[in-house]
Fold these 2 entries.
Entry 1:
Amino acid sequence: MEADEATYEIIFSSCLEKLEKAGEPEQIKQYLMLALDKTLGKIKEGKLSPAMFPLVIAKDLKHEDLNLAYELAVICAFFHTAADLTDDVEDEAENNDLINKAGKSQAINLANKLLFISQQLINDLKIADKLKLYLLKMFSNTGNIMCNGQFYDIALTNTANNENIQINEISLINERKGGVELACFFAALPVAMDIESGDYYKLGIYYGALAQLFSDYFDIWCQPVSEDLLVLKNTMPVFSACNDPVFTEEIKTLLAGKNDLVNKQVILKRIIAKTKAVEEFEEYFKVCSLKINEQLQALPGLKILEGLVQELFNNCEALINTLYELRKSVAKKAKVKIYNFENSISMALDYLNTDNYFEDTWEVQRWGFLDEPKLIGNIFPPALIMETLLDAGIDIDDSLNYILSLKREKGWYYFSNTDKIPTDTDDLGQLLNLVGRTCSFKSYNLFRLPLKILELNLEESGRCPTWLADQDKFQKEDIENTWFGNECAGVMANLYYGLFLFNRERYKEKILKGIHYIISKFDPSKNNWTGSYYTNYYTFYLVSRLINAFKPNIGCLNLAKAKMRGEQKLNGSWNNSPQDTASVLLGLLTFKDIDQLVLKTGMIYLQETQKYDGSWEGENLFICPGKDGRMVYYNNPKVSSSFCLRALLQGQNKLNALQEEKREKVEKHRPLMKISEVQNAPVQLIY
Amino acid sequence: MENLRNLILSLALDNEEKIEKNIIEDETKVVKLFAI
């Protein structure tokens, strides 16, 4: 189509006139026109706007009076703009002028308004009431179906596990979005004129679906940075590539992490062109073009529409042929990227490894909690970090001795400078963990009384309360009635794991009881444990490492594992969160077997979300008291980073071990070489 | 159609540095279509 300034002006002015006639306030009118201009501006650029189709059909039917067609074009413009604006909010589009000016909440509100206005405008048409009703019914039905299409579009974005979804369900999304919208716009004029509209509607569905599909492929290969790849929309090319058995591992590994760099996008363009994504498009195009041609035969004489159809066919063929050509060109260009996490690990260690007793992680309450001017929580957060440093082989003696020295008479208190709270099992469990692992025998005496108090609190059922009654200042009943979160699966698991590392033989029976109690608290409706303090991802880690250390292959734990595995996103993360990703990876690593692709893609996500100073963003970890009694979350970048580092350390060890296993298998089955051959053989790196 | 072919191949095959410098400003000059 040629640029059509005149048509643009007519429709644009008509939209404005409608709003002015309705008495819309100035600011609202400006925002609505800004949104509408995204739809209509295409017309003056020579692009085809969806709003144009009533006019196209009117001209094809050689109507002299185009007024009704223009009125319908305005209605289509309002309707399409409403859908497009909502789509941009849902996709978190960065280039939508209205969203950038008015914000997302207002954009959603104005999208609804645009939709309601389109309905009012149908009612204002100068046609018979029954025809208005038919139009209202058709537009409502269209919007309804489009919402279903959008539902699956959103649900499938950034999802990794699509084994149960078939390719035709992906193409159905296109039919439910672009297809039905154009079907409605194609059929609008015939319905308004009370002529048979069925064939126009069908033509619109096939044409719209094919145009939507072309747009999805265009997005990947015809833009320097594909927005669909940025957010990992499961459009047909992405879905097909991920489900091509020859390329699944390669594609999923590449899609892990962030896709915002041009370099990575170039590699993705090349690799996806090698997959059956191209064949799927070709197949769909063949089927769709046949159906479109059949419909055109049922509607002879629509010359302009035939021209638009031919243009779309030409574009599709050109794109398909070029992708085959690209495939041949990149056949020998493929680079196999070796993922190396050493630098990430080293950066994170440097960030974490300070000698100030991790003062920047202390939870300091200054607002008068417990009527104290200042409470210092300087044991638990540093102890979490120290656990990671132990994994890295770093000497933690100084830091550990410091927190051990904070012991008061009965043991260690979360706020080390007060005994107004009971001692707790989370701090105790964490310290048992560190002392057990470092075999700090000289410190064992320090635990005599705290462990005695613990044993008095452990119940026969295996239940371990969070807060410990000392039979002196704090009594059991008072604690149960007064203190928050006295039962938490995560805290219990941490305590029992600490006992396991400290002295598994002496505490074996107690630990087993504890495990049974924790298992009894499994929530089958969530396939996980619910704790009072921690996120479900961190709780999964704490429970997994305890149970797998003692009694592997427990049914409910396997269910939790399967659920976690199923929630991994296409970018390798859980919940788009580095800390949650680290927690799940750490939990999965406690099982005998871990899917290498799950591990690798999770680690890539961690690597790519690491910041330039070696840290990760701080994320909420456990509930703590906020000002004036509010419940808030403890959140510290050093502690969150320590979990991410821990996952990379343990993950790297696992990958190295798997690589070693693979190498040994290869060696075992390799035929014996002569001495001279062995000396000259190249070193083969297998990843 | 030649424009579409050139666009796809240049974005996927040209070296990465060149792609960052030659920003494609307006794909509408290359292919006339509408976004749904």
Entry 2:
Amino acid sequence: MGHRIFSVVLVAASLIITARASAVTFDKNVPQATQQQMVADLGFMNTIQGAKVSALHKQVFGDMQGAVYVNYFDSRVKRIGYDEGDVGGAVAYVAPFIDSSKMVLTSNFTKFSHPQIARLMVVYHEARHTEDDNGNWPHATCPTPFLDENGQEIKSIWTGLPLAGQDGCDDATIGAYGSSLILLKNISLTCSNCNEKVKMDAGIYADDQFKRITDKGSHETIRKDLYVH
Amino acid sequence: MFTKGSKRAVPFAFAVGIAIVVTVLWSGHRKPPPDDGAIAVAEPAASANSPPGSSSETLSTATPMPTLPSPTPQSVSLTDDDRRQVAVLEQILKSRDDNDPRMDTELRNLSPQAKIELRNKYIAMSAESRNERGTIVFVLGREMKTSEDAAFLASVVAEPPCLSMQDCGRRPDAPVDEHAAMANEVSLVYPQLVAVKSFERVLKSGDLSTEVKKAAIEALQRAERSENSKVSQSAQGVLANVKF
């Protein structure tokens, strides 16, 4: 009888969480197309399923379930605003010193032709910056020198200048870059209802983010969690 | 498709829930214990983007990647099946729902004519349509069987770089925030990276002709000299990790 009650409670809780997934609050100035895109993207997240996750995914998110992902987002982002500017090429940002529970989408969110999972990577990365209790997971200065696996200096593709000394890396294992990399890499490896393109995309963007984890300990922790047999 | 604030979703969800609850209680179904053990996930074999520490050699990139002639549209006569598949792809691209299951169930076993039509679609698209172009490359790459198929993907890899998400022909007007534009670096070369992945799949496949594999290797060797480090490193990773 105990497991039956547990089953009932579990199903009821799942439904409540699922029903909550439709609650996204937009500022009045957010264009309809932007709202629709965001709702559609989160709607996709709400469908994701997978039987296995890595230890770091379990730590940051829990199981690979859509409701878990949407709850993660909803518990951090209370409002979504809009910035019609380019904002340095961003599709979304959080300004913790202004309102740490508000995510701002830019005009690029709909203008730029990113794969869907790439947009979600950015959105979940930014959601991490809402966490006041964790100091909003600030980024680290990229090391000097900042080298790739071939020992070549990593440079900005925009300016050609070295990225060493720039604010675009992470020391933490599960900071903004780390958490979104963990999310996407797990999706690429074990999502059971993602198509081949989505899984490929998740892997491509996750692997690129991995290069920004520059603390050796954090890098090794993630490598063991996601990149070893 | 997810609907914002659907007022019918909540009561419908509870109705479904009641039905499930009744079924659980009536059938005496025993739910398996939740799996709370974290599991180390296996590394995918020979990824084109291998993590740091992999054994790819450092190759000289002094000689730039040679250019290839851009493909031109070809006239083609389509069957009803071809038209249906092309229409499915167009619907998926228009919906921006990358996870449409028809990507895997419908967009397979393309005829040579359907492939030509998809190449025509690719050529007609704006260069800034990075995801749309990359999606076509993905579909065609999965169907790579002939040297003609390989030649098209090689031409994708050899395209001039897209300089900004707003306009491939020029660099951004305003300074770029390296952190804020985190996805842009990859998206700018997304079709190229997908092509490299496609070549990797071909080289791992045991049932393709030597001619196609040779074309794949040549395309990757060309990509190693790409001026974009993400493309060159991706190609290097494949050539270092796949035996041929």
